[in-house]
Amino acid sequence: MTRAVAVRALCEFTAREGDLDLRFTPSPSALEGIVGHQRVSERRGPDYRSEVPLAGSHQGLQVRGRADGFDPVRQCLEEIKTHRGDLSRQPANHRALHWAQAKVYAALICASEGLASLKVALVYWHVDLERETRFEVELTAQALQAFFQQQCDAYLAWAASEEMHGAARNAALEGLEFPYAVMRPGQRATNGTRWPPSQASDFWPRRPPVARWGTPARMDRAMSSTPWTLSRTPGRDSSTPSRSTAIRWVSRPTRASSSVTRGRSWSSFDAATHRCRAARNRGPV
User: Does the structure show a pLDDT above 80 at 136?
Assistant: First the structure.
């Protein structure tokens, strides 16, 4: 099975170390970041290449991205980051993630250009002072390729785990029986009017599970055919059951989630039928 992932997404998933808090304030805006990249590129020579498209693969995982800059004369790949404030205050986990992105791009460009070694540089541009701070190392293509494969292997291991869980979840959903054999008068007609819109590809992720889903009959049909991707938002209250609690209730793979609207919170967990319903009499949170 072939999978595809962007370089930045790959590194943010596999190369984060230490504290997962990636805030470094005050931070530049998106527009200031674009202008900062342009300022750095303008300082380079005529042979300098900006936004270099790169791609590579490892065991069926396709990795794509655009390197910020490459100097073929110096054989140096640059990863450009914009910032504000004192760079010495930057947490180590930020720097590690930036180096990971630079190394993955360097591995891809070594493979595409046939280079034996490459200079890899982190370039930090202060958007207010228009000052450049540079960190540079020289690495062999073999070391860069090993690092690239390490990140890909970590991502593929997670993807395989998710695929196994998805297969077990779908098998469990296929074996579920609808608990209400007889519908109330008028319920079938209501279910028929509500069911077709849920076939749209963009219906599932955009609507809270209770506010617009209506009857349990509709919920059961949708659950049997829709990938049931659930998450538990950090910071939700303890009344939302956790996965460990769910395992004690039912043997089949189960997850818990909570969906939050402006005024209320819904808990979406049912061990017996996986149906979503409003938390019993819960007020605004």
Answer: yes
Helix or strand (DSSP H, E) at 149 = helix 141-174
Q: HEC string of 50-107?
A: EEEEEEEEECCEEEEEEEEEEECCCCEEEEEEEECCCHHHCCHHHHHHHHHHHHHHHH
Residue 40 lies inside a defined structural domain of this protein: yes
Mean pLDDT across 83-102: 88
SS3 218: helix
Compute the distance between CA of residue 132 and CA of residue 42 in angstroms, rounded to an integer: 12
Which residues span the domain enclosing 19?
A: 3-155
With respect to residue 98, please indicate whether it lies within any of the assigned structural domains: yes
- 120 & 38 share domain: yes
Q: Which of 155, 175, 208 is the last residue of a domain?
A: 155
Q: How sure is the predictor about 71, in pLDDT bands with cuts at 50, 70 and 90?
A: very high
**Overall average pLDDT of the 18-36 stretch:** 78
Residue-wise pLDDT for 239-257, tens only, equals 444 443 333 334 444 444 4
Query: Do 236 and 188 have their domain in common?
Result: yes
Contacts of 277 (CB under 8 A, 6+ apart): 210, 216, 268, 270
Q: CA geometry: angle at 172 spanning 166 and 176, to 5°?
A: 140
